[in-house]
Each structure stands twice: as structure tokens, then as C-alpha cells.
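User: quick one, sequence for these C-alpha cells?
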């Protein structure tokens, strides 16, 4: 577990790995509020997405879930950041960037890719756009 200290007097944000403390309901609440569009109305599918992930990193403030990153990785060549979401009331405090950094460190040595239209946030997190990517949507 590691900690982010936003200001001197506020409680730290704790970073944890794994599914402990998570439930389809808590994930759904966070994704709806962030918002991050995923199949949150189907708890079984949502939980399967998490059980099958290679790496789940969560951020907590005073026991409350405030951030999630979900990754698929082969551990050698490629990693895919599937989800990144932060609660609206703590957005803009640097937590998303810190979470990206944590994921980058955990997936070090692999090429980390993601799909997103948030170019400013991803540029600020050190990512570069690629031209040679193709998808079946
Ligand atoms: C995108 C998101 C994860 C960013 O988390 P955050 O904790 O608010 O971001 P940070 O405070 O670490 O911001 C890091 C930088 O990105 C910028 N940024 C943050 N959110 C942004 C957004 N929505 N659009 C553009 N830039 C953004 C910040 O201004 C900051 O720039 P700076 O370093 O120049 O100050 C969060 O806003 C979120 O959950 N959004 C909804 C879900 C989503 O779109 N997820 C990403 C797609 S997978």
C-alpha cells in the first residue's frame, strides 16, 4: 500500500492493489459519478471484468473508494489500461496522474496502451499518441 498526501491537514489517499473491499455496487457508483461508461447495470459482467483483469489499483480516502485503474497485461510486451476513474469531488488533485504513474511502474518494460479522447490528461501523464493502432469496435 502507498499513500498520496494532497495537503498537510487532509487525510492521505491510500493506493491498494486487488479486489479487496470492492463490489459491483461500489464500482458502479464510482463509474456513474466519474463518469466512465462501462456496463455497470449488469453486476455479473462488471465483476467478471474485474476478476479477469491482471491488475486492479484502487484509491481510498478515509475508507471510501475514490479511484480505480484496471489493467490487462502479459507482463512482458503489452499492457492495456482499460479503465481509469476518479470521484468528481477529488478530481483535479493529481490523483489520476499518480494512479497512472503507479500503473506505469507496475507495468514497466511493457508498452502501455489505452483508448481515450482526453488528450490533455494523457499528455500530462507522459503518454504519446500512436498512429499505427487499429481496432474493431
Ligand atoms: C480523467 C481523470 C481520470 C483525471 O483524474 P484527476 O485526478 O482529475 O486528474 P489529475 O488531477 O491527476 O490531473 C492531471 C492533469 O490532467 C488534466 N486533466 C484532468 N482531468 C482532465 C480532463 N477531464 N480533461 C482534460 N484534462 C484533464 C489536469 O488539468 C492536470 O493537468 P496539469 O498537470 O497541467 O495540472 C478523471 O477526471 C476522471 O475520472 N474522468 C472521468 C473518467 C475518464 O474520462 N477516464 C479517462 C478515460 S479511461
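Assistant:
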Amino acid at each position: 500500500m502507498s499513500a498520496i498526501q494532497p495537503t498537510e491537514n487532509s487525510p492521505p489517499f491510500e493506493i491498494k492493489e486487488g479486489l479487496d473491499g470492492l463490489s459491483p455496487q461500489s464500482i458502479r457508483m464510482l463509474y456513474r459519478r466519474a463518469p466512465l461508461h462501462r456496463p455497470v447495470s449488469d453486476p455479473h459482467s462488471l465483476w467478471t471484468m474485474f476478476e479477469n483483469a491482471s491488475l486492479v489499483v484502487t484509491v481510498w480516502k478515509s475508507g471510501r473508494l475514490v479511484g480505480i485503474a484496471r489493467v490487462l497485461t502479459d507482463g512482458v510486451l503489452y499492457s492495456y489500461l482499460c479503465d481509469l476513474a476518479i470521484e468528481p469531488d477529488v478530481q483535479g488533485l493529481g490523483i489520476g496522474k499518480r494512479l497512472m504513474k503507479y500503473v506505469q511502474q507496475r507495468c514497466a518494460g511493457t508498452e502501455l496502451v489505452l483508448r481515450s479522447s482526453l488528450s490533455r490528461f494523457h499528455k500530462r501523464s507522459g503518454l504519446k499518441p500512436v498512429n499505427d493502432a487499429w481496432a474493431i469496435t
